[in-house]
Amino acid sequence: xxxxxxxxxxxxxxxxxxxxYLGDDDENVVLLPHKYKPEEFRxxxxxxxFVYLDNEERPIATTxxxxxxLNSFGYLHCSDVNEFGAFMDWGLEKQLxxxxxxxxxxxxxxxxxxxxxxxxxxxxxxxxxxKTNRFVQNDELTxxxxxxxxxxxxxxxxxxxxxxxxxxxxxxIYIEDIFEDIRTGDRMKAFIKxxxxxxxxxxVLQTPGYKSIEPNANFIMDELKAVGGFLPLHDKSDPESIxxxxxxxxxxxxxxxxxxYKDKQIVIxxxxxxxxxxx
Length: 279
Description:
By secondary structure, the protein is mainly beta.
């Protein structure tokens, strides 16, 4: 079966004027236009292609890489809005249609939006939606505390950064746990800090709890070596100074230098921390 909205590995069946016809083991066939065919090929070769619907709603193959796949989220640019809805640039020739009923708020040409790609059951067309809450759930969690996860930042508020976790769950990075510049649309690795009784998920960008001590300590060691062995920071330094200098919270900093001090890697002075020389 050739899957629309996904990558398919298909065999080259024949070459015609429009392009190469590709097929699967079930004798399903799709056209790859000439402009996407490889420079060298033989009948029977297999190609990995993305399949979507062309302007006449017929399945078509391409070697272009879309910005999102079926049942996933992407951060897309709105290139046009007309009386039917919005049209998003998703890396392919035909733009992705987002009808008005699927817009969380009215879209405007030139703006960027978090969009989910799904296959409409009635029309069998690929459709975008910015009503992201419809496509995530926290009822049945697939993550646990301290898990490393992939996140997509959906929007920023006074509380912090709202994120989608592994394309499945909603989470929040609280403002006090943000020590770097993050923006809507950013994708990155993160960690589950805490799962609350109502299944709300707290996320952090650094390894949470005791697991963060060792990497933070190593980071501080690298910083000390890079600046000649002394940093004008200590356990009584202002939290903002620590955040600006090292990108971590004061709590994480104190845990890390405590570890380094116990391991006899540094000495803590009144004006900062100093790397101990290894004679």
